[in-house]
Amino acid sequence: MEIMELIDRAEALVGASTKVPLAQKRMINTEDMLDLIDQMRVAVPQDIKEASQVLQKRDSVINQALSQAKGILAAAEEEARIKVRESSITRDAEGHAGQIIAEAERKAGNIIAMAEKQAQARRQDADKYALQVLRDMDARLGSALEEVQGGIELLEKGQRSREGAREEARA
What we know:
Elements: H1 3-16, E1 18-19, E2 26-27, H2 30-86, H3 90-170
Antiparallel strand pairs: 1-2
Helix pairs in contact: 1-2, 1-3, 2-3
């Protein structure tokens, strides 16, 4: 289950909880909230795993670009060797081979640079996403936890004052 769905469920749990009269507090079913928090703990690693998969895809793109660049370079070198053998004017062939190699190196450099930019962008997007999810979860869980703690404190105060009233009535 996606972390955002779990956060929405936590928000719904707070919304569906019983409001404490005369207070800005709500009583939340602790078991339901703890179950939801456990599910969130499981979901966050899944989101991180998905971000890791994005990084693996980036590495695959870079490796593919390097492989293509090597292929282009090898093809250019082979073409240059053939030209030298076939041509009676070796200087012209060498000059042309140099141009082919330079073009292949330029193309390979462009492919690698583009792949690295894409990988960097994906890595930054993955980092931004993970950070945003964690910040959002922190804010929502912090708010829910404050409400739960406030409800507990309010109930404990009420229980203590009722117990004190019973003891005074007995005395």
